[in-house]
Design a protein that fits this description.
This protein is mainly α. The protein has helices at about 5-15, 20-25, 30-35, 45-65, 70-80, 85-95, 110-145, 155-165, 195-210, and strands spanning about 170-175, 180-185, 190-195. The longest helix has about 30 residues, at about 110-145.
């Protein structure tokens, strides 16, 4: 069980104070802990948080660009709501250390999915406690400022290439535990690196935009 001091620290990290602390306990309870204790796990609240996150990000994108097509909005949301940025936010806030797990479970070895699930569980708990407005506040405070794909670099590069009758070609390979991507556009090569393939290609596209003087 989380201590009062741990709950206060979690609330400080996310910038939200819960009315019902049982929701915090649920959000930070891994299934491995449930197997050994009488506790409520975070799977259900994580499911709800995933729904809320997709809706609020979609709402933000819809209101930000009122001329964007459904396809463009879907692509932008997919770039923002994915395991990698969610897991990185959990890492940055240090939330994983508060996750209650079973004996012998190594939290530091958790993959991106488990870490991203934790953030979705927190969002679900905030929704149950304070509604959509509270979730919007949390996203403004700790989510959007830390999500770099808000600007769709690959989409922007593709649109530019089409406008000048050029093509965009990516060559992405694993590299020292991560990925390295080389993008060729307008006869020039630009390189980007990251922990996963998607972010490496986004980094390469960003480098190309900067090199072409578009950024």
């Amino acid at each position: 069980m989380l201590t009062d001091a741990q709950i206060r620290e979690i609330q400080r990290c996310i910038g939200y104070t819960f009315n019902d602390r049982r929701l915090v306990q649920a959000a930070f309870t891994h299934s491995s802990y449930v197997n050994e204790h009488e506790a409520v796990g975070n799977e259900r609240v994580e499911f709800l948080g995933d729904c809320v996150l997709n809706f609020l990000v979609g709402e933000r994108l819809f209101l930000r660009d009122r001329t964007a097509s459904e396809g463009k909005l879907s692509a932008q949301r997919a770039a923002i709501v994915s395991r990698s940025p969610l897991a990185e936010i959990v890492d940055k806030l240090g939330l994983i250390k508060y996750l209650q797990v079973g004996a012998g479970v190594n939290k530091s070895a958790f993959e991106a999915k488990t870490r991203s699930d934790l953030l979705e569980a927190v969002i679900g708990a905030v929704y149950l406690d304070g509604g959509l407005d509270a979730c919007r506040m949390i996203l403004d405070a700790v989510y959007y400022p830390n999500v770099t794909p808000l600007r769709n670099y690959k989409g922007r590069l593709q649109n530019y290439a089409v406008s000048v009758h050029e093509t965009v070609e990516y060559n992405t390979e694993s590299d020292n535990g991560g990925y390295k991507s080389v993008v060729v556009v307008c006869g020039k090569k630009y390189v980007g690196s990251a922990k996963n393939k998607r972010d490496a290609e986004a980094a390469a596209a960003k480098a190309a935009l900067e090199g072409l003087g578009i950024e």
